[in-house]
Amino acid sequence: SAPHHGLGFVATTDKAGALKQSNFNITYAYHLGISAHVNLAVGLSAGVSHSNINFDDLKPGEAADQALSSGQVSRLKPDVNVGVWLYAPTYFAGASIQQVLPQNIVFNDDNTYKEATTVPHYFITAGYKFWFDDNYTLIPSVMLKWIKPLKPTLDYNVKFTFKDKLWLGGSYRENDAFSGMLGFNISSLVHISYA
Asked: Rg (Cα) of the chain, in Å, rounded?
């Protein structure tokens, strides 16, 4: 394709017990055709990460744990992610890094304890599109995720599409989780999906 730009906005929220984290990022990508059928995109995402912990939801082993406050503590930090994406009509591959900027995670109001720090999240993914006919495709893919010091994990994914408009899929993370996905392409510029 001819060189072109992509802009987007991503908002995510994750809650685990007493900890809630939300990320709000503006994304930019530059797409460049490197052959008749192969394109390369380089992207950057920047924004803020908001962490909130509700200490009233915790049940510490010791009642007077000095590392814990009471009530809620919120922190706002910068967030940067980068990635590359190689794609063609029948295949794709990419690599990205989230949380490029390490940040201290502070769990108390007086900033005495700074034991936790965010670490980069590394992702590598690849997939292939099989055409059954002009209307139906099957797209299996795999994603490797590595977050130091944990062991790398693999996600196995599959997506069925109909007329490149409606799609349904599923994912399995080794020894961890299953998920389902549904999406609708309103136009070449607007997609709505849920997982």
From this structure: 20
